[in-house]
Amino acid sequence: MNVRLRHDAIVRSLRRNGTSTIADLAAEVGASRRTVLRDISALRDEGFVIHSEPGRGGGLQLDPQSVQTTARLSVAEVFALLISVASMRAAGSLPFSDLADAGLAKIEKALPPDKVRDLRRFLDCLYVGQLSPLVDISDMSAMDPALLPAFETAFLQRRQLRFQYRDAKGAVTRRMVEPQAMLILPPLWYLVAWDPAREDFRHFRMDRISRPEYVQDAPFRRRHVPFKDEVTPIRDLPR
Amino acid sequence: MNVRLRHDAIVRSLRRNGTSTIADLAAEVGASRRTVLRDISALRDEGFVIHSEPGRGGGLQLDPQSVQTTARLSVAEVFALLISVASMRAAGSLPFSDLADAGLAKIEKALPPDKVRDLRRFLDCLYVGQLSPLVDISDMSAMDPALLPAFETAFLQRRQLRFQYRDAKGAVTRRMVEPQAMLILPPLWYLVAWDPAREDFRHFRMDRISRPEYVQDAPFRRRHVPFKDEVTPIRDLPR
DNA sequence: CCTAATGGTGACAAATATTGACACCATTAA
DNA sequence: TTAATGGTGTCAATATTTGTCACCATTAGG
After folding, report:
1. Which of A9, A113, B140, B154 is the most exposed place for a label (fewest CB within 10 A)?
2. What's the CATH number of domain B3-66, 1.10.10.10, 2.30.40.10, 3.40.50.10490, 1.10.3720.10?
3. For chain B, which residues score pLDDT lower than 50?
4. Which residue of chain A comes nearest to B12, CA vs CA?
């Protein structure tokens, strides 16, 4: 039996039985007492909280609070979860948001370091404010997740972004801009970008952007964005 | 060098260089050509999409979309992430919320089945509505995550919940109620409960509840909650 | 106090898994 | 045709994991 499988079996058994002795577990997974002890030690290293009671009537007990689960997430998914929780925190305090943060911190820790750096750099471009009550929310539609990679690249490598934009009147234009920031006015998201053709900043509602693509040969520098309203950088929000 | 570390190193190298040959990787991680090939095969089994091109000028290429990360999360953390994304979706469509959903689905799949059942049952108690603009949001504070277990038990095992409640005027009372639903009026959360002492339903703002504990010997049955405003069960929200 | 049942550690040989060397095949571009 | 590449099979060398055994610490019960 594989080490991994044996660990799983031990956790399952502890979850099922409440309390087990090393001898029980050894018999159940078909390994020696010593090996089970080594496995328990490894599981503790992995974060499982296993209480042990020596002496007659003693045994091992798995703290149910510590039962953990592993999931393989793509970077895009982690990214989406991260900004979900970030924007939720932006919208105001919520029950359990600390726990969600803790979960995300763990996920983040498991990411390759360069990806974490990327995510942080992207978060630095996120700003939050209060939505003016004048905006018509009724025609909102979600942004296609498939668009994410182009945005990520445009922001992280500072490449100009080309996309199709449908304005409030339904007119469709093709734009090429320098993405400077993302502005969250819950529940709407805006891309704040410098439009070189118009030599000014423009706000674009994310749900009205389609077919975005970054332009490899069009790098640019970050500009200071003159936000009209009061906004907060997301990284400055209280945790 | 450890197998795990070597796999990580290979993935990092592929991510950094774009294209590498087996020989390059072997030199870089200090292993033989054969071993690297075995590693590549293992990584593919784990879900990494690695394109390969034989022949002159060929090499290996890692599909960046497939880079994955594993994280061990406690059940409470998964729970917090789940309701975060659920309430975010409730607040309106957001970019990437589909991706966040997909990530959560994977996490959920990795949970033990009985926990998933519990989560679903809890989600059935969640309702969403529009917050009246009359509520004063300025004095909000987040709920302590340590309170979660008592709530979970009270909801799932239908035990009465005892807690301390501080009302809008600051007066503190001790309550014992039957938790029937959770109502999300972003960014506020309410516990909707039947108060046996008053023989009526009451709404309690979650951030004003402290020291909750479930009462083991006080089971009850679910009641039909007569919501005053228009609310939507969270499980009926469009995905 | 003694004993039996329990968790826990160290040492070392046996069992098992991983690795490297080598031969070889398939594909591709020059 | 050749050289550079990915890919597979085999087998001995090497590294890791496992079991055995001896022993210690703690606890409950007689």
Report:
1. A113
2. 1.10.10.10
3. 93, 132-134, 137, 238-239
4. A112
